[in-house]
Amino acid sequence: MPHPLPTSVDGTAALLQSGDYVADRSLATALYLALKLKRPLFLEGEAGVGKTEIAKVLAATLGRRLVRLQCYEGLDVASAVYEWNYPRQMIEIRLAEAAGEKDRAALERDIFAREFLVERPLLQALRPDPAGAPVLLIDELDRADEPFEAFLLEVLSDWQVTVPELGTIKAAEPPIVILTSNRTREIHDALKRRCFYAWVDYPSAARELEIVRRKAPGAGERLAAEVVGFVQALRKADLFKLPGVAETLDWASALVQLDKLELDPAAIDDTLGVLLKYQDDIAKIQGSEAGRLLEQVKAELASVGIR
Protein backbone atom coordinates (compact mmCIF):
# COMPACT_ATOMS: atom_id res chain seq x y z
CA MET A 1 0.00 0.00 0.00
CA PRO A 2 1.31 3.49 -0.83
CA HIS A 3 2.14 5.73 2.10
CA PRO A 4 -0.35 8.59 2.54
CA LEU A 5 0.69 12.09 1.55
CA PRO A 6 1.00 14.68 4.33
CA THR A 7 -2.18 16.60 5.07
CA SER A 8 -0.65 19.86 6.31
CA VAL A 9 2.45 22.04 6.11
CA ASP A 10 3.51 20.82 9.55
CA GLY A 11 3.00 17.24 8.40
CA THR A 12 5.17 17.89 5.34
CA ALA A 13 7.95 19.37 7.50
CA ALA A 14 7.68 16.36 9.83
CA LEU A 15 7.82 13.98 6.86
CA LEU A 16 11.05 15.59 5.66
CA GLN A 17 12.50 15.56 9.17
CA SER A 18 11.77 11.83 9.41
CA GLY A 19 14.18 11.52 6.48
CA ASP A 20 16.72 13.80 8.22
CA TYR A 21 15.93 16.75 5.97
CA VAL A 22 15.52 20.02 7.88
CA ALA A 23 13.38 22.37 5.77
CA ASP A 24 12.35 25.94 6.48
CA ARG A 25 8.66 26.85 6.61
CA SER A 26 8.44 28.35 3.11
CA LEU A 27 9.96 25.26 1.48
CA ALA A 28 7.69 22.90 3.44
CA THR A 29 4.69 25.02 2.37
CA ALA A 30 5.66 24.93 -1.32
CA LEU A 31 6.17 21.17 -1.18
CA TYR A 32 2.87 20.58 0.63
CA LEU A 33 0.96 22.59 -1.98
CA ALA A 34 2.72 20.80 -4.85
CA LEU A 35 1.78 17.41 -3.37
CA LYS A 36 -1.77 18.44 -2.53
CA LEU A 37 -2.54 20.03 -5.90
CA LYS A 38 -0.48 17.55 -7.94
CA ARG A 39 1.78 20.17 -9.48
CA PRO A 40 5.50 19.90 -10.27
CA LEU A 41 7.79 21.74 -7.84
CA PHE A 42 10.60 23.75 -9.42
CA LEU A 43 13.52 24.35 -7.06
CA GLU A 44 16.26 26.85 -7.76
CA GLY A 45 19.33 27.61 -5.68
CA GLU A 46 23.08 27.32 -5.49
CA ALA A 47 24.71 23.93 -5.90
CA GLY A 48 24.89 21.89 -2.72
CA VAL A 49 22.00 23.47 -0.80
CA GLY A 50 19.85 20.31 -0.80
CA LYS A 51 17.54 20.56 -3.82
CA THR A 52 18.19 17.04 -5.12
CA GLU A 53 18.03 15.62 -1.61
CA ILE A 54 14.37 16.66 -1.30
CA ALA A 55 13.35 14.24 -4.05
CA LYS A 56 15.42 11.43 -2.52
CA VAL A 57 13.93 11.98 0.93
CA LEU A 58 10.39 12.17 -0.49
CA ALA A 59 10.81 8.85 -2.29
CA ALA A 60 12.26 7.18 0.81
CA THR A 61 9.71 8.52 3.31
CA LEU A 62 6.68 7.93 1.07
CA GLY A 63 7.88 4.50 -0.03
CA ARG A 64 7.80 5.52 -3.70
CA ARG A 65 10.09 4.63 -6.58
CA LEU A 66 12.60 7.36 -7.41
CA VAL A 67 13.10 8.00 -11.13
CA ARG A 68 15.98 10.39 -11.82
CA LEU A 69 16.68 12.20 -15.05
CA GLN A 70 20.09 13.88 -14.89
CA CYS A 71 20.14 16.70 -17.42
CA TYR A 72 23.13 17.66 -19.56
CA GLU A 73 23.86 19.54 -22.75
CA GLY A 74 22.62 17.58 -25.76
CA LEU A 75 20.04 15.56 -23.81
CA ASP A 76 17.52 14.20 -26.32
CA VAL A 77 14.35 12.12 -26.49
CA ALA A 78 16.25 8.85 -26.90
CA SER A 79 18.05 9.41 -23.59
CA ALA A 80 15.20 11.01 -21.66
CA VAL A 81 12.01 9.35 -22.89
CA TYR A 82 12.39 6.21 -25.00
CA GLU A 83 14.22 4.51 -27.82
CA TRP A 84 13.70 1.31 -29.77
CA ASN A 85 15.80 -1.74 -29.08
CA TYR A 86 17.39 -1.83 -32.55
CA PRO A 87 19.53 -4.98 -32.03
CA ARG A 88 16.46 -6.98 -30.98
CA GLN A 89 14.47 -5.56 -33.89
CA MET A 90 17.21 -6.58 -36.34
CA ILE A 91 17.25 -10.11 -34.92
CA GLU A 92 13.47 -10.28 -35.30
CA ILE A 93 13.74 -9.17 -38.94
CA ARG A 94 16.44 -11.74 -39.68
CA LEU A 95 14.38 -14.51 -38.08
CA ALA A 96 11.33 -13.47 -40.11
CA GLU A 97 13.38 -13.48 -43.31
CA ALA A 98 14.79 -16.92 -42.48
CA ALA A 99 11.27 -18.23 -41.88
CA GLY A 100 10.16 -16.88 -45.25
CA GLU A 101 7.65 -14.39 -43.82
CA LYS A 102 6.87 -11.71 -46.43
CA ASP A 103 4.09 -9.71 -44.82
CA ARG A 104 5.93 -6.42 -44.31
CA ALA A 105 3.03 -4.70 -42.51
CA ALA A 106 2.73 -7.52 -40.00
CA LEU A 107 6.48 -7.52 -39.44
CA GLU A 108 6.47 -3.76 -38.87
CA ARG A 109 3.71 -4.15 -36.29
CA ASP A 110 5.68 -6.90 -34.58
CA ILE A 111 8.99 -5.04 -34.30
CA PHE A 112 7.34 -1.84 -33.05
CA ALA A 113 5.49 -3.63 -30.27
CA ARG A 114 5.80 -2.49 -26.64
CA GLU A 115 8.26 -5.28 -25.85
CA PHE A 116 10.86 -3.65 -28.11
CA LEU A 117 10.51 -0.25 -26.44
CA VAL A 118 13.33 0.79 -24.11
CA GLU A 119 11.85 3.08 -21.47
CA ARG A 120 13.95 6.00 -20.29
CA PRO A 121 13.23 8.05 -17.11
CA LEU A 122 10.31 10.19 -18.34
CA LEU A 123 8.41 7.21 -19.71
CA GLN A 124 9.27 5.09 -16.65
CA ALA A 125 7.71 7.79 -14.44
CA LEU A 126 4.38 7.48 -16.28
CA ARG A 127 4.16 3.74 -15.67
CA PRO A 128 1.73 2.67 -12.89
CA ASP A 129 3.28 1.35 -9.69
CA PRO A 130 1.60 -0.58 -6.84
CA ALA A 131 3.41 1.65 -4.32
CA GLY A 132 1.89 4.77 -5.86
CA ALA A 133 3.05 7.27 -8.43
CA PRO A 134 6.84 7.53 -8.42
CA VAL A 135 8.91 10.58 -7.56
CA LEU A 136 10.36 11.97 -10.79
CA LEU A 137 13.51 14.03 -10.27
CA ILE A 138 14.50 16.18 -13.27
CA ASP A 139 17.87 17.29 -11.98
CA GLU A 140 19.85 20.36 -13.11
CA LEU A 141 17.43 21.31 -15.87
CA ASP A 142 19.51 24.41 -16.59
CA ARG A 143 22.20 22.14 -18.07
CA ALA A 144 19.83 20.87 -20.79
CA ASP A 145 19.16 22.72 -24.04
CA GLU A 146 16.09 24.90 -24.57
CA PRO A 147 14.48 22.50 -27.14
CA PHE A 148 14.37 19.84 -24.43
CA GLU A 149 12.48 22.26 -22.19
CA ALA A 150 9.88 22.62 -24.95
CA PHE A 151 9.49 18.86 -25.10
CA LEU A 152 8.88 18.73 -21.34
CA LEU A 153 5.78 20.89 -21.70
CA GLU A 154 3.66 17.95 -22.93
CA VAL A 155 4.83 15.77 -20.06
CA LEU A 156 4.27 18.38 -17.35
CA SER A 157 0.93 19.60 -18.76
CA ASP A 158 -0.84 16.37 -19.66
CA TRP A 159 1.32 13.67 -18.03
CA GLN A 160 1.67 11.91 -21.32
CA VAL A 161 4.25 11.02 -23.96
CA THR A 162 3.53 10.43 -27.63
CA VAL A 163 5.32 7.51 -29.28
CA PRO A 164 4.50 7.73 -33.01
CA GLU A 165 4.51 3.96 -33.55
CA LEU A 166 2.36 3.20 -30.46
CA GLY A 167 0.32 6.35 -29.87
CA THR A 168 -0.03 8.37 -26.68
CA ILE A 169 1.02 6.84 -23.37
CA LYS A 170 -0.71 8.62 -20.47
CA ALA A 171 -0.09 8.25 -16.74
CA ALA A 172 -2.99 6.83 -14.74
CA GLU A 173 -1.74 8.94 -11.81
CA PRO A 174 0.64 11.91 -12.19
CA PRO A 175 4.11 11.35 -10.75
CA ILE A 176 5.45 13.57 -7.97
CA VAL A 177 7.76 15.84 -9.96
CA ILE A 178 10.73 17.76 -8.57
CA LEU A 179 12.74 19.89 -11.00
CA THR A 180 16.01 21.51 -9.92
CA SER A 181 18.19 24.24 -11.38
CA ASN A 182 21.47 25.80 -10.27
CA ARG A 183 20.47 28.87 -12.32
CA THR A 184 23.40 28.76 -14.73
CA ARG A 185 20.79 29.98 -17.23
CA GLU A 186 17.16 31.09 -17.05
CA ILE A 187 14.44 28.50 -17.56
CA HIS A 188 11.65 29.49 -19.99
CA ASP A 189 8.50 31.03 -18.51
CA ALA A 190 6.25 28.51 -20.28
CA LEU A 191 7.77 25.69 -18.26
CA LYS A 192 7.87 27.65 -14.99
CA ARG A 193 4.15 28.41 -15.30
CA ARG A 194 3.38 24.71 -15.08
CA CYS A 195 5.20 24.43 -11.75
CA PHE A 196 5.13 25.78 -8.23
CA TYR A 197 8.39 27.52 -7.39
CA ALA A 198 10.71 27.70 -4.39
CA TRP A 199 14.15 29.20 -3.92
CA VAL A 200 16.35 26.97 -1.75
CA ASP A 201 18.79 29.26 0.03
CA TYR A 202 21.78 28.58 2.23
CA PRO A 203 20.43 27.65 5.69
CA SER A 204 20.64 29.80 8.77
CA ALA A 205 23.28 28.85 11.33
CA ALA A 206 20.69 27.20 13.59
CA ARG A 207 19.22 25.12 10.77
CA GLU A 208 22.64 24.14 9.44
CA LEU A 209 23.72 23.05 12.92
CA GLU A 210 20.63 20.85 13.13
CA ILE A 211 21.49 19.36 9.73
CA VAL A 212 25.04 18.57 10.89
CA ARG A 213 23.70 16.96 14.07
CA ARG A 214 21.47 14.70 11.99
CA LYS A 215 23.78 13.92 9.08
CA ALA A 216 27.17 13.88 10.85
CA PRO A 217 26.32 12.59 14.32
CA GLY A 218 29.96 11.67 14.99
CA ALA A 219 30.87 15.34 15.31
CA GLY A 220 30.73 16.55 18.92
CA GLU A 221 28.70 19.60 19.84
CA ARG A 222 31.71 21.93 19.93
CA LEU A 223 33.15 20.72 16.64
CA ALA A 224 29.75 20.90 14.93
CA ALA A 225 29.19 24.46 16.20
CA GLU A 226 32.66 25.58 15.07
CA VAL A 227 32.28 23.96 11.64
CA VAL A 228 28.93 25.65 11.06
CA GLY A 229 30.21 28.98 12.36
CA PHE A 230 33.26 28.84 10.11
CA VAL A 231 31.21 27.92 7.02
CA GLN A 232 28.70 30.66 7.76
CA ALA A 233 31.60 33.14 7.94
CA LEU A 234 33.03 31.83 4.66
CA ARG A 235 29.74 32.53 2.90
CA LYS A 236 30.23 36.22 3.65
CA ALA A 237 33.66 36.19 1.95
CA ASP A 238 34.32 37.10 -1.67
CA LEU A 239 34.82 33.60 -3.06
CA PHE A 240 34.32 32.14 -6.53
CA LYS A 241 32.20 29.27 -5.14
CA LEU A 242 30.69 29.44 -1.69
CA PRO A 243 30.46 26.13 0.20
CA GLY A 244 27.04 24.51 0.29
CA VAL A 245 25.48 22.28 2.93
CA ALA A 246 26.94 19.24 1.17
CA GLU A 247 30.44 20.64 1.71
CA THR A 248 29.66 21.43 5.36
CA LEU A 249 28.67 17.80 5.94
CA ASP A 250 31.71 16.49 4.07
CA TRP A 251 34.00 18.72 6.12
CA ALA A 252 32.43 17.72 9.44
CA SER A 253 32.76 14.03 8.52
CA ALA A 254 36.38 14.51 7.40
CA LEU A 255 37.31 16.22 10.67
CA VAL A 256 35.69 13.39 12.64
CA GLN A 257 37.82 10.91 10.69
CA LEU A 258 40.89 12.92 11.70
CA ASP A 259 39.80 12.64 15.37
CA LYS A 260 39.33 16.38 15.73
CA LEU A 261 37.30 17.56 18.70
CA GLU A 262 37.55 21.21 17.74
CA LEU A 263 38.92 23.37 14.94
CA ASP A 264 42.48 24.62 14.88
CA PRO A 265 44.38 26.57 12.17
CA ALA A 266 46.42 23.55 11.05
CA ALA A 267 43.32 21.34 10.67
CA ILE A 268 41.59 24.03 8.62
CA ASP A 269 44.57 24.53 6.29
CA ASP A 270 44.96 20.76 5.81
CA THR A 271 41.30 20.16 4.96
CA LEU A 272 40.21 23.26 3.04
CA GLY A 273 40.11 21.16 -0.13
CA VAL A 274 37.09 19.34 1.30
CA LEU A 275 35.26 22.64 1.79
CA LEU A 276 36.43 24.77 -1.15
CA LYS A 277 36.77 23.51 -4.72
CA TYR A 278 38.85 26.23 -6.40
CA GLN A 279 42.54 26.86 -5.74
CA ASP A 280 42.10 30.64 -5.81
CA ASP A 281 39.50 30.37 -3.03
CA ILE A 282 41.76 28.08 -0.99
CA ALA A 283 44.74 30.43 -1.40
CA LYS A 284 42.60 33.37 -0.29
CA ILE A 285 41.47 31.67 2.93
CA GLN A 286 44.46 29.51 3.86
CA GLY A 287 46.78 30.76 6.58
CA SER A 288 46.17 34.08 8.32
CA GLU A 289 42.63 34.59 7.00
CA ALA A 290 41.57 31.15 8.23
CA GLY A 291 43.09 31.95 11.61
CA ARG A 292 41.24 35.27 11.78
CA LEU A 293 37.90 33.65 10.90
CA LEU A 294 38.47 30.91 13.46
CA GLU A 295 39.18 33.44 16.22
CA GLN A 296 36.00 35.27 15.25
CA VAL A 297 33.98 32.06 15.39
CA LYS A 298 35.40 30.99 18.76
CA ALA A 299 34.67 34.43 20.22
CA GLU A 300 31.07 34.30 19.01
CA LEU A 301 30.59 30.82 20.46
CA ALA A 302 32.17 31.85 23.75
CA SER A 303 29.69 34.71 23.99
CA VAL A 304 26.85 32.17 24.04
CA GLY A 305 28.59 29.84 26.49
CA ILE A 306 30.23 27.35 24.10
CA ARG A 307 33.94 27.15 25.07
Structural class: alpha/beta
Overall CATH class of the largest domain: Alpha Beta
* CATH architectural name of the largest domain: 3-Layer(aba) Sandwich
Let me know the average pLDDT.
91
Low-confidence stretches: none
- Strand content is 5-15%
Total helices: the number is: 15
Shape: elongated
The succession of helices and strands, N to C, reads HHEHEHEHHEHEHEEEHEHHHHHH
Strand order of the largest sheet: 2-5-8-1-9
Number of domains: 3
Distance from first to last alpha carbon: 50 Å
Measured as a percent range, the helix fraction is 40-55%
CATH topology of the largest domain: Rossmann fold
Rounded to an integer, what's the Rg over CA atoms?
24 Å
Number of strands: 9
Largest sheet: 5 strands, parallel
Q: In the CATH hierarchy, what is the superfamily of the largest domain?
A: P-loop containing nucleotide triphosphate hydrolases
Describe the structure.
With 307 residues, this protein is α/β, with parallel strands linked by helices. It has three domains: 9-75 and 120-199, P-loop containing nucleotide triphosphate hydrolases (Rossmann fold), CATH 3.40.50.300; 83-114; 205-297. Helices cover 50% and strands 12% of the residues. It has 15 helices and nine strands. It has a five-stranded parallel β-sheet with strand order 2-5-8-1-9. The protein has a two-stranded antiparallel sheet with strand order 3-4. A two-stranded antiparallel ribbon has the order 6-7. A hairpin with a 3-residue loop joins β6 and β7.
